[in-house]
Amino acid sequence: MSVAACAALVERGDPDRFRAVMAAPVEARAQLFPLYAFNLEVARAPWVTQEPLIAEMRLQWWREVVENAASGAARAHEVAGPLHELIRDFGLPVEVLDRLIAARRWDIARDPHEGAEGLADYLEDTGAGLMWLAARALGAPDAAEAAVRAYGWASSAAMYIRAVPELAARGRQPLPASISAQDLATRGLDKLAEARAGRKSVPKDVAPALLAGWQTEALLRQVVAGRSSPELSEARKRWGLMWQAVTGRW
Predict the structure, then answer these.
(1) Is residue 179 within 8 Å of residue 223, measured between CB atoms?
(2) Rounded to the nearest 5°, which phi and psi values hold at 223?
(3) DSSP for residue 112
(4) Exposed end of the chain (fewer CB within 10 Å): N or C?
């Protein structure tokens, strides 16, 4: 039950977030790696089995982990243990963790989201919630929540659009009929503008929690411009991450 084990999981399963954490100050990594490992475990739970009931059971197990951690009953698990310590030591909001897990039930089914707002809620509970949890783990005050969540929503929208072809290939219906990828990207850019308008509410010490969104604007602008499969070159990824890590601007 170590941060190193969580880091190894993230490195294998979520390389973009791994790079973001490695660009953060060393002292921030002990909070970010367990949280991102937890997110990875929850995100992949619906995909490791073809049996919906088993997938539901896996998500329910994580909901119980979060509930038990809040009462002091930690699980002996390489991610659940460090997550328990984060909840205990940094007061992570259990209801946000629970909504993140519950939202992943959509990934089990093959039904579309309930319109544009259903998709918006999914992005709010997953990506926006995760970024707020990361910020709280680094000491973000309540006043920063709106800006951090807006940035997390925009980042989640960019990553979701990038995943649309894979989701469709796996038999899901990622985009409701009422919204196109360009519509979603435009809304993501609006959220990005909202986040930046509230930037002053976010302390500089919290900036490492936002590094995971370093590709957001570039990917969203590609989609708005008509590119269906947005992607950045490795050189552009490295430069963008380095710039955000050095300047702290997002």
Answers:
(1) no
(2) -70, -45
(3) P
(4) N
Q: Which residue matches tokens 């896996």?
A: 58
CB burial of residue 125 (10 Å; 0-12, 13-18, 19+): buried
Q: Helix (H, G, I), strand (E, B), or coil: what is residue 226?
A: coil
C-alpha–C-alpha distance, residues 173 and 89, integer Å:
39
pLDDT interval class at 72 (50, 70, 90): low
Please answer whether residues 105 and 136 qualify as being in contact, where contact means their C-beta atoms are separated by less than 8 angstroms: no
CA distance 77 to 100: 19
Average the pLDDT over 225-233 and give the result: 93
Give the residue from 74, 83, 76 showing the smallest Cα distance to 39: 83
Non-local (6+) Cβ contacts of 82 within 8 A are 1, 2, 3, 6, 33, 34, 37
Residue 218 carries which side chain, given as an amino acid letter? A
What does the pLDDT read at residue 61?
A: 93
CA distance 104 to 100: 7
For residue 73, give both structure tokens.
């009953």
Angstrom distances, CA of residue 33 to CA of 14, 29, 97, 137: 11, 6, 15, 11
Q: Which residue has the tokens 């969580």?
A: 6
Per the document, the length of the chain is: 250
State the pLDDT confidence band at 70, using cuts at 50, 70 and 90. low
Does 205 have pLDDT greater than 60?
yes
